[in-house]
Amino acid sequence: MTIMKNTLNIIGGGMAGSEAAWQAANAGLRVVIHEMRPKVETFAHRTGNLGEMVCSNSFRSDDHEQNAVGLLHWEMRQANGLIMQTAEKHRLPAGGALAVDRDPFAESVTAALKSHPNISISYDEITNLPTDGNWIIATGPLTSGSLAKAIQAETSAEALAFFDAIAPIVYHESINMDVAWMQSRYDKGETEEERTAYLNCPMNKDQYEAFIDALLAAEKTEFKEGETAGYFDGCLPIEVMAERGRETLRFGPMKPVGLTNANDPENKPYAVVQLRRDNALGTLYNIVGFQTKMKYGAQKAVFKTIPALENAEFARLGGIHRNTFINSPTLLDEQMRLRSRPNIRFAGQITGVEGYVESAAMGLLAGRLAVAELTGKTLPAVPNTTAMGALVTHITGGAEAKTFQPMNVNFGLFPALEGAKNGRRNRKDRYKGYTDRAKLDWQAWLAQTV
Ligand SMILES: Cc1cc2nc3c(=O)[nH]c(=O)nc-3n(C[C@H](O)[C@H](O)[C@H](O)COP(=O)(O)OP(=O)(O)OC[C@H]3O[C@@H](n4cnc5c(N)ncnc54)[C@H](O)[C@@H]3O)c2cc1C
């Protein structure tokens, strides 16, 4: 392979690699995306598309005033982000969340990159660390084995592998709508479609207790000793939540608050299982928050005890997956470059951020930082008062290196507001203060990058 000195090479065309390529190509760089699919597959991807969503079809909250993920959406939109603008085109009703029709979404991302005059796509697996040229490694949680080994050899730090789990998807036609009803929690949403975006299955106390018993007794995929210690807390399998306490699910994904059973308004459900639309046609629904490592047979048996799902047909059952990420606080500089080989940047989930949005955001940033470097500009650090800056500051130094674990964006990563009082009563004002400040600072930073 001939490496052009003025070309940016990106390994991996997922959320991060696609966004990085878009940003760099729009700034005038020549970009080559190296994507191993469809030649080499992963167990979670189904297509050869760039920007494929491997599990949930949601980019989570779109609230840019009160939510840190929503703020990250806003910041990416301001920066002409490909992932956000494509998500907008394929948006599905989801009661305040930004959910999309996954296949048309990934097809659009692929088409936009393929037709860009500055981008070419090479469908190959990169198995070694590149020695020259300018590179971004954005190979994600399922980085291929040989490249992972090469990274390990270079960093001599252990690439950490751990498991979380994917939620099952049910065919809508197999759900008993005499028992279930459509409603978003607290009727949240601007339109009737948004206010009825979720499909709810009610449980009384006996049904809930029986469900917990079934979960606890179900046959699970066994973990090797120590593996579960690496769980990412936001993505715990439901049976692990149930093991932590019989009430945990009732205060988590099965909480009954903000919902009234349209089929039986007088009876307050003791717990509620929520499903959310998974495609534009409305034929598929995923069970929200029901990641699991139960064996397939056990999953079917347990989920069919949920009222309205007694005849459920599953388009996909839950599963476990691996996550590869590097110890960014020790390995990367504040420009996301590998300290030992500064011609290589890392971006996306492999840097230790968690989720589609955070990964795309780190791709956006890595792309822009590469552009600045290759065009001889010096950019100031991204202010840590922005969602983008808070995240990158965390992974490249803010986090404790010894106990470094994947991180979602959250207001806990932001510096305190001057003169703001802490405490629950002022939370709404505080969050608004964070997001107002972030927006100003992000716009000021962006203005310096052009
Ligand atoms: C099973 C599973 C379920 C998940 N569920 C969710 C979820 O519900 N919500 C959520 O927000 N996040 C979820 N995640 C995390 C999600 O995958 C990431 O947050 C996001 O996709 C990461 O973006 P990325 O660009 O870093 O990696 P990816 O989107 O995975 O992209 C990496 C790309 O690199 C390619 N690649 C890998 N190795 C090589 C190589 N050696 N050479 C060339 N190409 C290579 C891969 O084929 C892939 O296309 C899940 C992850 C997994 C594995």
UniProtKB/TrEMBL annotation:
It is found in: Cytoplasm. GO terms for molecular function: flavin adenine dinucleotide binding; tRNA (uracil(54)-C5)-methyltransferase activity, 5,10-methylenetetrahydrofolate-dependent. Its EC number is 2.1.1.74. Its cofactor is FAD. The keyword NAD applies. It holds the Pfam family GIDA. One of its GO terms (cellular component) is cytosol. GO terms for biological process: tRNA methylation; tRNA wobble uridine modification. It is an enzyme of class 2 (transferase). Residues 8-377 form the MnmG N-terminal domain. The keyword Flavoprotein applies. Belongs to the MnmG family. TrmFO subfamily. This is Methylenetetrahydrofolate--tRNA-(uracil-5-)-methyltransferase TrmFO. It comes from Yoonia maritima.
